[in-house]
């Protein structure tokens, strides 16, 4: 029985195969067909042609309430009670805090007494003026005495109005002891606990954020905006009019938010601190699925690359010098070979459900790019046998 061959590892066999190819490459001229007498590998090609392709732009964004209201104490006093559940939705006008009302009830009572006294004084002044007026007309008294009585009545009427204004102010301050939410939205945590002293118009009690709709803030760099403007000026790119992009939101777990939105603000100025244009999207959020402060990915769809060349992403390979594709060419004997062609890629797009790279440079219309059989190409300039060509990428 013949002796068994020793076991050879997969790595050793790969190295042995590589060495054999190297020896064959240094030997006599290869016969027609593949390398070292092997049949030429069969590949599938796709002819690149200019076409229009949809493109999208992606940015880092952060959610924010469409309205953020700071709830502050409007009178000075002691917080007696918190009347809401922290973090829960609240309605406009809903009481959130109760400030000790006793000092303000006392002020209201004092103001009501001032109004009553002013009215009594006005009644007395009116009676005195009415009594002296006919006497002055009959010249029983001097005219000055009657005029003084009329002026006293007018001053008493003004005093009544002043007392009524103080009473209204006292009642308003009393109403401010019930701190209410100014808007519908999500409440934040309470900044002050029961028993805390709060100062009028300065002490922050909590914050309420309106989250339906919710805003998504993101920025576009000045450099990228210049690149887009140049592409539009050259006719290579078209953008939706008036920033009418379809806005999709990708969450931190990679899922896509089920509702799309729209751009509702695009700043015309560059922020000198960040060197970016600030933009804002608006998204319906009735179910409160999005909360303020979340980091998301903002995807803007609706732009189009015009007269662009594209190849399937599987056709683009990575080498020591960067990305490249294999293009079918001819050697000196007229045989078809796989030529390595460095390329500069741009955006991703979709073509018939297939992801494609848009090619910025390195290819020209009519080039035949190898899209299938790449694993059988051992090295550049390997002879290949082209099968039926694949359909060109169409947007």
What can you see in these coordinates?
By secondary structure, the protein is an alpha+beta fold. The chain folds into 3 domains: 37-53 and 307-386, conserved putative lor/sdh protein from methanococcus maripaludis s2 fold (Beta Barrel), CATH 2.40.420.20; 55-65 and 210-303, Elongation Factor Tu (Ef-tu), domain 3 (Beta Barrel); 101-176, Orthogonal Bundle (Helix Hairpins), CATH 1.10.287. Helix content is 25%, strand content 39%. It has 4 helices and 22 strands. The chain has helices at 10-26, 102-137, 143-175, 222-233, and strands at residues 42-47, 51-72, 77-82, 89-90, 95-99, 178-180, 185-187, 197-198, 204-221, 237-238, 246-250, 262-271, 276-283, 295-312, 317-319, 322-330, 336-342, 344-351, 354-361, 368-372, 382-383, 385-386. The strands form 4 sheets. Strands 2, 4, 7, 9, 10, 11, 12, 13, 14, 18 and 19 form an 11-stranded antiparallel beta sheet that branches. A 4-stranded antiparallel beta sheet has the order 6-5-3-8, with no helix packed on it. It has a 4-stranded antiparallel beta sheet with strand order 15-16-17-21, with no helix packed on it. α2 packs antiparallel against α3 (143-175). The longest helix has 36 residues, at 102-137. The chain is elongated and about 140 Å long. The model is unreliable at 1-32 (pLDDT under 50).
């Amino acid at each position: 029985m013949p002796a068994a061959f020793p076991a050879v590892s997969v790595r050793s066999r790969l190295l042995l195969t590589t060495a054999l190819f190297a020896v064959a490459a240094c030997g006599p001229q290869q016969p027609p067909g593949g390398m070292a007498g092997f049949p030429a590998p069969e590949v599938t090609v796709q002819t690149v042609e200019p076409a229009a392709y949809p493109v999208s732009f992606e940015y880092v964004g952060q959610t924010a309430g469409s309205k953020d209201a700071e709830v502050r104490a409007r009178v000075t006093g002691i917080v007696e009670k918190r009347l809401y559940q922290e973090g829960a939705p609240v309605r406009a006008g809903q009481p959130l805090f109760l400030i000790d009302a006793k000092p303000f009830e006392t002020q209201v009572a004092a103001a009501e007494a001032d109004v009553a006294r002013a009215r009594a004084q006005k009644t007395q002044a009116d009676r005195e003026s009415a009594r002296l007026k006919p006497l002055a007309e009959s010249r029983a008294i001097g005219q000055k005495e009657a005029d003084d009585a009329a002026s006293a009545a007018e001053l008493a009427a003004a005093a009544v109005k002043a007392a009524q204004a103080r009473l209204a102010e006292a009642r308003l301050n009393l109403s401010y002891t019930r701190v209410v939410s100014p808007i519908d939205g999500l409440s934040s945590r309470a900044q002050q606990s029961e028993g805390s002293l709060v100062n009028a118009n300065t002490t922050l009690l909590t914050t309420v954020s309106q989250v339906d709709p919710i805003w998504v803030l993101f920025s576009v760099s000045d450099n990228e905006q210049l690149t887009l403007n140049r592409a539009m000026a050259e006719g290579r790119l078209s953008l939706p009019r008036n920033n009418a992009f379809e806005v999709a939101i990708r969450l931190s777990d990679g899922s896509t938010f089920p509702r799309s939105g729209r751009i509702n603000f695009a700043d015309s100025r560059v922020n000198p601190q960040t060197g970016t244009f600030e933009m804002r999207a608006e998204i319906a959020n009735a179910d409160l699925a999005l909360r303020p402060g979340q980091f998301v990915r903002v995807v803007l769809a609706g732009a189009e690359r015009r007269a662009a060349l594209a190849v399937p992403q599987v056709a683009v390979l990575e080498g020591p010098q960067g990305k490249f594709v294999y293009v079918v060419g001819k050697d000196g004997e007229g045989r078809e070979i796989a030529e390595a062609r460095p390329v500069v890629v741009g955006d991703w797009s979709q073509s018939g459900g297939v992801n494609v790279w848009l090619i910025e440079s390195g290819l020209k219309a009519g080039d035949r790019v190898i899209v299938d059989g790449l694993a059988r190409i051992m090295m550049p300039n390997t002879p290949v046998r082209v099968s039926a060509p694949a359909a060109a990428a169409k947007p």
